[in-house]
Structure formats: C-alpha cells, structure tokens
Design a protein that fits this description.
With 188 residues, this protein is of the alpha+beta class. The chain has one domain: Roll (Hypothetical upf0131 protein ytfp), CATH 3.10.490.10. A hairpin with a 2-residue loop joins strand 6 and strand 7. It is globular and about 45 Å long. The two termini are 25 Å apart. It binds succinic acid (SIN). Succinic acid binds next to helix 2, strand 3 and strand 5.
C-alpha cells in the first residue's frame, strides 16, 4: 500500500525556493544526504523515538514485499539523535519525492551540542498513513528487513548503514542496535 504525499506536503507547508531552512534527518537522511546543503551539524530532538515501523514499497522493498524503514513515534523523555542540514527551499522538491511514501513535513525543535537550538523541518510517517506497518516482534521485523530489496537497494543496508552512522555520532539507539545485531545473523 502506498500514498503519494508529494502534493500534500507542498500544500500543507509551502516553503519558498529561495528560503533557507534547517532539515532534521533521522533515517537515511543521516547517512545518505544526496542533496546540496549549506551546513551539516549533528543534532537531537526531544520526545521522539526512532522505530522501524514504516513500510517501504518504493525504496527498500516492493508493493508485494515491503521493507521496513525509520519513522518517529512520540515518547515522553526520549531523545532522537540525527543530522541537521541547512538547506535552500528548492531542495525540498527532491526530498518530497524521495519521502513520498507516507511521510509528511512537520516542524520540530532541534538541539545542537553547543546548547543552541533551532526550528527544523522533518519528514514524519504517522500511524494513519497507508504504508505504516507498526510494531512487530523483533525477530519478524529483522527477518522482513533481511529479506527485502527495492529500487534503492537492500533493506538490510539501510538498517546497517544507519546503525553505523549512529555509532559514528556516538548516539545510542537500542531499537536500531538490536535490529542490526539480529539482521547481521540472518543470511542474505
Ligand atoms: C529521515 O531520514 O529523516 C526520514 C526517513 C528516511 O528517509 O529514511
């Protein structure tokens, strides 16, 4: 199942092409920018936890065999580490297409290591989107990720690249670490 959110995103949060804004990445946007940016800084957001609960029918899976990719769920007290990018507004054209399988533009407060903060845009896939898969036992999520492939490559690479990027940032994420550990033991 999928729903193309490209047009919805342009309508619900219009951004001028020439504007400068911050983008917060917490999934593939940490380790695979693939767009032009003016500045890149590690950051975290509060009250959100990263979960592999969003289905990927277009990048890391297919409509018949969707993969699992990251989204965020509200969790009081949680910290989600990621990467902030200062970008020009026109970069959102490409990002809206990349994130079109259920992700909506939202704004968030990002915190930087020096104690400063800024408002940023992020792409969030909520549980009411058509591609949302939700929670499942760790073993079945790991098996689904280990088996799924899509036009952007193996789902396991998405997970393992994210786990490595988080380690490089010195960021702890038990959910990602547990999934990565399990997937590494499942044959490709
Ligand atoms: C993100 O990385 O911030 C959004 C989800 C993804 O593209 O993996």
């Amino acid at each position: 199942m999928s729903l193309d959110t490209t047009l919805i995103n342009r309508q619900r949060m219009p951004v001028d092409d020439a504007a400068e804004l911050w983008l917060f990445g917490y999934g593939s946007l940490i380790w695979k920018a693939g767009f032009a940016y003016l500045e890149r800084r590690p950051a975290h957001i509060e009250g959100w936890a990263r979960r592999f609960w969003q289905g990927s029918h277009d990048h890391r899976g297919t409509p018949e065999a969707p993969g699992r990719v990251a989204t965020l769920i509200r969790q009081p007290g949680a910290l989600c580490h990621g990467m902030a990018y200062r970008i020009a507004g026109d970069v959102l054209h490409g990002l809206d297409i990349r994130e079109k399988n259920g992700y909506l533009r939202e704004t968030t407060l990002m915190h930087f290591a020096d104690g400063s903060h800024a408002e940023g845009l992020l792409y969030l896939a909520t549980e009411d989107n058509a591609a949302f898969l939700g929670d499942a036992p760790l073993e079945s999520m790991a098996r689904q990720i280990a088996a799924a492939h899509g036009p952007s490559g193996a789902n396991r690479d998405y997970l393992l690249n994210l786990a490595t990027a988080l380690e490089d940032l010195g960021a702890e994420d038990e959910h990602v670490a547990a999934l990565a550990k399990r997937v590494q033991h499942i044959k490709a």
